[in-house]
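Problem 12. The chain below contains 270 residues. Write out its predicted structure in token notation.
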Amino acid sequence: MQLKKSLLSLALAGVVAVASTALVGCVSNTTSNSSTTNRSQLMLVSEQEVMTQSAQAYDEVIAQARAQGVLNTNKALTARVQKIGDRLIAKAPTFRADSAKWDWEVNVITSKELNAWCMAGGKIAVYTALVEQLKLNDDEIATVMGHEIAHALREHVREQMSTQALKQGALNIASLFGVSNTTLNIANTLAEVGVSLPFSRSHETEADELGLELMYRAGYDPQKGIKIWEKMMSLGSGNTGLAVLLSTHPADDERLANLTELAAQLKADK
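Solution.
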């Protein structure tokens, strides 16, 4: 009997979530002219809210980097990264017209961390270790920067925030119907493993694909560029097997195979 009640409670939460989606609806694609990003996106959080929060977070990171003396300290590398960024930014409106009005910025932060990011609105940072430790060529830098820019063009942060808001709303409503905390915890775990994490993986795949299209449009070689992921794999991400289930990134072998196929297709279609 208790199991039946639990299943009914989970079903109720699911119905609420589906109903909420139907009421809110989906917006059109945030990008166009792409052969890979052809899905609609659910947006419950305003674009301005995400832009404001991103700008605040960006200002804090840059201020801290400047205070620590690690902002754009390598002039040659900074000029190189900014040149690549300029070429990518010039082609971004091909996929999203309003990005031409974004206040883009590209910075290099001296750090041992293998990282790069692009916040909403076009605020980009590349960490020195990513380029220097992996000995990246320009095509590889363009690939990873294109990937990060693609996240911003597709507003993945906004979409993730909207998904979390929808999930939390469904759980809150379910609790009003007397669903137990145990059942809600189970539902939350199922939503995390069955929805949130795979959704993050789909974002990574989408950023891979749109980013590769972007770097290609900017005049870089996608077949040379995707070597960056082979280098990352050589570091041993452990992103295979069961680990993929609880990871926000796709399996390494699947990622590389997908991008290898896309790179060949892009060059064949020129």
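Discussion. The mean pLDDT is 76. Students who got a different answer should revisit the alignment rule from Section 12.3.
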